[in-house]
Specification:
This protein has a domain at 1-106. The protein is elongated, with a radius of gyration of 40 Å. It starts with a helix and ends with a helix. Helix 1 packs across helix 5, helix 6 packs across helix 7 and helix 6 (112-135) runs antiparallel to helix 8. The chain has helices spanning 3-30, 39-62, 66-72, 74-81, 92-104, 112-135, 146-157, 170-263. It has 8 helices and no strands.
Length: 264
């Protein structure tokens, strides 16, 4: 078994694990549950985290050059190792993004816009959950509900920034910075995709117009050639008729000249 085959086998299980983690994390954050208050939630969160650890270890084992693969994927070690601490739980959400990326990475060009919009919605939701997890119990915080967090995430990712809600903790501000950068990237991709689509439509219209023009020109040329051929046939027939008439007149003239000679 190689890495590609393992990725194919683990694709759906990791996606399901990521969704399960997101649901459990949402319940924990929105319900303002501390670790240990819900055994089921803790089991799901740590169980899904363990699945991603197993996936990482298998990928490392199957790598042809393990040390090179390890060096190129150090961020995965950070993602999997640091979330033991609750303040760094944001990094656990990257595992969900990783599984979603692995699942949707084969998207066709025509689905790019839909995928980017879906990624933007997911980014807003994850950012809202993360900042709410850090801010809702802070003494000086002004983000106390999921509605406040969603509103803040929307105004942040669109770079509007009303300022009525804002994070006061360090990690909350890090989440805000990620949303700002992610918003610029997402809307940049959307703009580029729409521009590419419009250019493609214009090019298709130009090609179709040129094809129509070529078709009309071919039809005109064919009609002209047919008309010229018909005129040529008429000219040939007229020429033959004229030659026949001249020959008849010549024959009649010769016959008329021969009669006086016979009479004399």
């Amino acid at each position: 078994m190689d890495q590609k085959k393992w990725q194919h086998l683990a694709e759906w299980p990791l996606l399901i694990a990521g969704v399960a983690f997101l649901v459990a994390f949402s319940v924990q954050v929105i319900g303002n549950l501390q670790e240990g208050q819900s055994v089921v939630i803790d089991v799901i969160i740590w169980g899904t985290w363990a699945l991603f650890v197993i996936d990482y270890l298998v990928m490392l084992y199957l790598a042809e050059r393990r040390w090179r693969w390890f060096a190129r994927n150090l961020h995965h070690v950070v993602i999997l190792g640091l979330p033991v601490l609750r303040p760094l739980r944001l990094l656990r959400l990257v595992t969900l993004l990783r599984s979603m990326q692995r699942f949707a990475g084969r998207a066709l060009r025509g689905r790019i816009l839909t995928y980017v919009l879906g990624a933007a919605v997911l980014l807003v939701y994850l950012g809202a959950l993360s900042v709410l997890d850090e801010e809702q119990n802070g003494p000086a915080a002004n983000i106390h509900s999921f509605g406040d967090a969603i509103w803040w995430a929307m105004t942040t990712i669109t770079t509007v920034g009303y300022g009525d809600h804002f994070p006061v903790t360090l990690l909350g501000r890090v989440v805000g910075a990620v949303l700002m950068v992610g918003g610029v990237a997402v809307f940049g991709v959307i703009t580029a995709t729409l521009s590419s689509w419009l250019v493609e439509l214009v090019e298709q219209g130009r090609v179709q117009t040129q094809a129509d023009i070529d078709q009309v020109e071919d039809a005109i040329e064919t009609a002209q050639n047919d008309e010229i051929a018909r005129l040529g046939d008429r000219i040939d027939r007229l020429s033959e008729a004229v030659e026949a008439l001249l020959a008849r007149q010549t024959a009649d003239g010769e016959a008329t000249g021969a009669r006086p000679a016979e009479l004399s």
